[in-house]
Every structure is written in structure tokens, then in C-alpha cells.
Amino acid sequence: MTTTVAAYAAPGAKAPLERTTIERRTVGEHDVLIDIHFAGICHSDIHQARAGWGDAIFPMVPGHEIAGIVAAVGSGVSKFQVGDRVGVGCMVDSCGECAPCRNGQEQHCVRGNIPTYNGVGKDGEPTYGGYSKQIVVTESFVVRIPESLPLDVAAPLLCAGITTYSPLKRWGAGPGKKVAVIGLGGLGHMAVKIAHALGAEVTVLSQSLRKKDDGLKLGADHYYATSDRETFEDLAGSFDVILSTVSAPLNFGAYLGLLKTGGALVNVGAPEEPISLNLFSLLGGSKILAGSMIGGIAETQEMLDFCAEHGLGAEIELIEASRINEAYERVDNSDVRYRFVIDTATI
């Protein structure tokens, strides 16, 4: 048996999202039924709803920044109970058996993790995301949202938070380290907050100085416009870590020139177009060009606890579901500060 749930879905590539209904599976022994209260709009949602990253499954219900309340649990669930404040991020299952899964890196499951939407579950049915009233997820892919974090500002942490926290931790952002964040958007603004809370000296590299006041308020120590050629001259060899959060192709050679010897440029943005790179920009100074993809479930919980401890939530604009298509256009135009969050009560 299944349950019919209201949702917003893209019926096809580039088609406007529209209100519809979907079927959620019956709560199994190890499942958690969540009443979704808030769902963030990630740029990934837009890429996938428009099939910008390749083949996609339609109709598609996007949304992998989910915050809500447990409504029911299966008989074998031990971690959660009805009434708990919980979240679901970018994946809802994995094989659980391969080395990455056993090491807490479910996002790198050898057999492929099962994404929260635009994927196929172990039951052979397509997965549907958070632009909906409810979701059913196996308990091992549900995380607890601390009481001190309001659910609406916590929702974007399930993608934007972990996507930036994981590489900042891995590459040693902290006291005595200089970190640059490329782009002050949905990902970038959380990167600034987290890097600052970790104790690093933080610089924002943005196309213009339009958001400089915001960046400094969020925790940046410095703010530079990349449209100014002098920026790349003045900051040459300055940074231990640069985190690129933008979804557009960059001149990576120029940004690699801003790293100290042995420094790392870590990319979490996912542009649809390929990039080109002169490898000599890596060889000189033994620079590192790396990538990072979200984080495992345990690390996601660690990130939420860290954000709660430091009072970090996303800067959001709360919208009704009827404004999703408008929000997509505004994200494309960089007209949001800094994350749209859907009040799912309006679906």
C-alpha cells in the first residue's frame, strides 16, 4: 500500500513546476515517515529539473534540503520517535556494504548512492524529493536537527551546509589558515559562516563588491572583486585553501595562482559546461585541485551539531510553493540572499 501526497513536480525538462500528487511507500520496519515543514531550493534542483546535467527522470519532484517532524516510525526503528525534529539531505539510501559506506562515506557508495530525487530506489521506483508534504526514508539516512536550530534556517544546511563544511574540515580550515570562498551565494554564504566559526581568516572572492557588506557581516575578514585584475596580482600566493562554490566555469589557472605552495583549490560547484586547465598552473608550487561532494551521514550530523553550537543557520527567503518557478528564475539571476526555502504548508 502507498500514501498519496501533495507535491510540486517538473513534468518534463525545462517545464514549469506544477502542483500534483505522488505516492509514498508504506512505512517499513526501518523507515521513518516525516511531515516536511520546509524544503530549500538548491541550484542543483534547477540543473536537474532542466536536465542540465544529462538524463533525468520525469515527472521530477526536486528538493534535498528537507526539515520536518517525525510522524511515524517502523517497528525496528531505534534512533527516532514521533515528534523528533529531523532532516534529510541529498541521499536516502546506499548499498551499506562497500568500503566507502562502511567508512561513513555513503555519498561515494561504489554501487551508487540513491539520491533523494531523480533516482531509483531499491524497490525499483523513482525517488521524489522534498517539494512535498511527506517523505519516507530509512532511519539510517535521517539526521537529527538540534533544538536550537529553527527548522526553516536548518533546511538548507542539509545540502549547502554539509557541502561546504566537509571540504573545509578536510582541508584544515581553522586558526592560522587563510581561506578564500569564491562566490557569495547559497553555498558561499554558508562557507563563509562555517570557515569563520572554524577560526580561519576568511576572504570572499566575488565578481563585484555588490554584496561586500553582507559578506563582512556573515564573517568574512576581507572581500575582493574578481572583475578587478589587480585582485589576482595583490592576492597572489595568499591562501591555504580556496573553496569554489559557483556553478559556472572559471579560469582555474588564475585562481590557482592565489594559493600558497601546497595549497588546495577545492571545487564544490557543478557547472554544466566542461572546463579547460593548463597543468603548469598546478605544477608550480605543487598546487592541489580537488573536488568534494556533500558528506556522509555521520559527518552531516556533526555539521548540524557544529552549526547549532555556533548559532549558524542559512540566510533565507521563505516563500509559498506557488512561487517556486519565480524562485528558479531569481536564482538564475543571482537575486536571492541567500537561499529560498519553501513553506511546505502551502503545497
TrEMBL record:
Pfam family, one: ADH_N
InterPro entries, alphabetized: ADH-like_C (IPR013149), ADH-like_N (IPR013154), ADH_Zn_CS (IPR002328), CAD-like (IPR047109), ER (IPR020843), GroES-like_sf (IPR011032), NAD(P)-bd_dom_sf (IPR036291)
Transmembrane segment boundaries: none
Residue ranges constituting the Enoyl reductase (ER) domain according to the UniProt record: 12-342
Catalytic EC class: oxidoreductase
Catalyzed reactions per annotation: a primary alcohol + NADP(+) = an aldehyde + NADPH + H(+)
Cofactor: Zn(2+)
EC code(s) of this entry: 1.1.1.2
Record keywords, A-Z: Metal-binding, Oxidoreductase, Zinc
Superkingdom, taxonomy of origin: Bacteria
Chain segments annotated as coiled-coil in the UniProt record: none
GO molecular function terms attached to this record: alcohol dehydrogenase (NADP+) activity; zinc ion binding
Protein family (similarity comment): Belongs to the zinc-containing alcohol dehydrogenase family.
Name the UniProt record assigns to this protein: alcohol dehydrogenase (NADP(+))
The species this protein was found in: Nocardia macrotermitis
